[in-house]
Amino acid sequence: MATLAERKEYLENELRSYRYIVDQCYRWEQVIVNAEIAIYGVSSPHAKDVIYENAGDPYECKYNSLYEDIKKAKVQLLIWQPRRQWIEERLGTLNQEEYQAIKYYYVLKQSQDWIADVLQIGRRTVQRRIDKAIEKMLNF
């Protein structure tokens, strides 16, 4: 079992990586969508003779490579989506003030002084909100 410090470090690292994790989910979801569009949008080859230009077959069926792309993307999504869900479940336990502090500090990587200026609160209040939010997420 991981210690509290190790769990806190893991949570903070995941929060810092949240934007990257979301980007990876979107990336692999887009690969699946593009491949499915290519599969279902391709018409059948014409009945006329095939004309080879530049040593390529313009009517070549690329379904196998598209299915491989979908398979690869689904494997990647199995890696990234649970991490995203894990973070979002914990973020969902926070109230609006705590969520803002965590978002600005970990996701947008802003300083506590900057957060205090934007939210028009004291720096110590920002620190307390972050600490309270981390504790709440660790106890989820």
Fold and architecture overview:
With 140 residues, the chain is an all-alpha fold. It has one domain (4-138). The protein is built from 6 helices and no strands. It has helices spanning 4-16, 18-41, 63-91, 96-107, 112-119, 123-138. The model has no long low-confidence stretch (mean pLDDT 88). Pfam families: Sigma70_r4. This is RNA polymerase sigma-70 region 4 domain-containing protein. InterPro entries: RNA_pol_sigma70_r4 (IPR007630), RNA_pol_sigma_r3/r4-like (IPR013324), WH-like_DNA-bd_sf (IPR036388).
Assign an overall shape: elongated
Count of helix runs: 6
Rg (CA only): 23 Å
How would you characterize the largest beta sheet?
A: none
Topology, number of strands:
0
Query: Which class best fits the helix and strand makeup?
Result: mainly alpha
The span between the termini is 16 Å
Helix proportion range: over 70%
N-to-C series of helices and strands: HHHHHH
What's the helix and strand layout?
Elements: H1 4-16, H2 18-41, H3 63-91, H4 96-107, H5 112-119, H6 123-138
Helix pairs in contact: 1-6, 2-3, 4-6, 5-6
Summarize the structure.
By secondary structure, the chain is mainly alpha-helical. It is built from 6 helices and no strands.
